[in-house]
Specification:
Organism: Streptosporangium becharense
Pfam family, one: 4HBT_3
Strand content: 35-45%
Shape: globular
InterPro entries: ACOT8-like_C, Acyl-CoA_hotdog, HotDog_dom_sf, Sec_Metab_Biosynth-Assoc, TesB_ACOT8-like_N
Order of helices and strands: HEEHEEEEEEHEEEEE
Largest sheet: 13 strands, antiparallel
CATH architecture: Beta Barrel
CATH superfamily: Acyl-CoA thioesterase, double hotdog domain
Structural class: mainly beta
Protein name: Acyl-CoA thioesterase
Helix content: 10-25%
Length: about 260
């Protein structure tokens, strides 16, 4: 079991309840990363489902859970030959923190009938940049769990040169060697810095709603993350992320709605 597998494990209590322990290693300065939290939920959902893969997940982030013990409570809404729909709730001390609707199915290893290419061309790994390590005491522990190498223009905000567009792009893999799987993809779709950073806006940008789709099972190796936004208005922004695997296949897509960072 890898560190990530251990940090996201869900232990069955009964057919609708799983015990979890949220790992402080996935913090972004206090709050836990939303993709990590979805991976925890999905471990429980898939374990309880007759199908192997979480093909679509829509999560509402009601409040920020803290590291430590909690439970995932499941309600199976519909099950069929090809798909099962489940409601999953992350609970700590009787309070709901995340509500998610998840559809599970079983994907095959098949070639696509039609596919487009990435929306933006990414430079190779060797021409991309690593972000500086967080300062001691920042409470940002997420960076240590993964390797991300960024397309240089999209991190110009670090030294006061944002592009002025909501965008973020990087190559991604876990820090501990592990082939990507659907749970790693759940983390990957929310791993980029908020795209509004590149538009010149900084601060913690809390996610309100995040929906993502598993499109194919990823090949081993680096993932490529391409993030963009369409509208920043009245304190809200959207963020779309494409995830491409080392074989050049689109393996995940996401869209989230979030609040513009404060401070």
């Amino acid at each position: 079991m890898t560190k990530f597998d251990e940090a996201t494990q869900a232990i069955r209590v009964d057919e609708s309840t799983y015990d979890v322990c949220l790992d402080p290693g996935y913090s972004i300065g206090g709050p836990l990363n939303g993709g990590y939290l979805m991976a925890v939920l999905l471990r429980a959902v898939v374990d309880a489902s007759p199908h192997e893969h979480p093909v679509t997940t829509s999560a509402q982030f009601l409040r920020a859970p803290r590291p430590g013990p909690g439970q995932v409570r499941l309600e199976q809404i519909k099950t069929g030959r090809t798909a099962t729909m489940t409601r999953a709730t992350l609970v700590q001390e009787g309070t709901s923190f995340i509500e998610a609707l998840v559809t599970t199915a079983t994907l095959g290893d098949v070639a696509p009938d039609w596919t487009d290419g990435p929306s933006v061309a990414m430079p190779p790994v060797e021409r991309c940049l690593k972000l500086p390590d967080p300062s001691p005491g920042s409470g940002i522990t997420l960076n240590a769990q993964m390797e991300m190498l960024f397309d240089p223009p999209t991190v110009g905000w670090l030294d006061g040169r944002p592009t002025g567009r909501p965008e973020s792009r990087a190559h991604f893999r876990l820090a501990e060697p592990q082939d990507p799987d659907p749970y790693v993809l759940a983390l990957a779709v929310d791993a980029l810095p908020p795209v509004v950073f590149s538009a010149g806006m900084r601060g913690w940008a809390p996610t309100v709603d995040l929906t993502w789709h598993l499109r194919a099972l990823p090949a081993p190796g680096w993932l490529t993350l391409i993030g963009s936004g369409r509208l920043i208005s009245d304190g809200w922004f959207d963020e779309d992320v494409e995830v491409w695997d080392s074989a050049g296949r689109l393996v995940a897509q996401s869209r989230q709605l979030a609040r513009v960072g404060r401070g």
